[in-house]
């Protein structure tokens, strides 16, 4: 079960890395309003730091898989 969770986390991390720009555009606000500023900040944060977060999680999952095997 643990190995399944590790592989699932690895796949999710790879998908997050591959779709960083798409996710950032989905978070970005479509119109001005009360939620525009936080959504803009979240979109910029994910666009800048999303690949690094995804790569770090990929490496962590690979490390756990290597240690488990």
Task: Describe the protein in words.
- The protein is an all-alpha fold.
- It has one domain (2-68).
- It is built from 3 helices and no strands.
- Helix 2 runs antiparallel to helix 3 (36-68).
- The longest helix is centred in the last third of the chain and has 33 residues, at 36-68.
- It is elongated and about 50 Å long.
Offer a concise description of the structure.
The chain is mainly alpha-helical. The chain has three helices and no strands.
Task: Give structural attributes.
single chain; mainly alpha; 3 helices; 84% helix
SSE blueprint and pairings:
Layout: H1 2-18, H2 20-27, H3 36-68
Helix pairs in contact: 1-3, 2-3
Calculate the terminal CA-CA distance, rounded to whole Å. Answer: 13 Å
- Please give the number of β-strands: 0
Biggest pleated-sheet summary: none
Mean pLDDT: 83
The secondary-structure class comes to mainly alpha
Helix content: over 70%
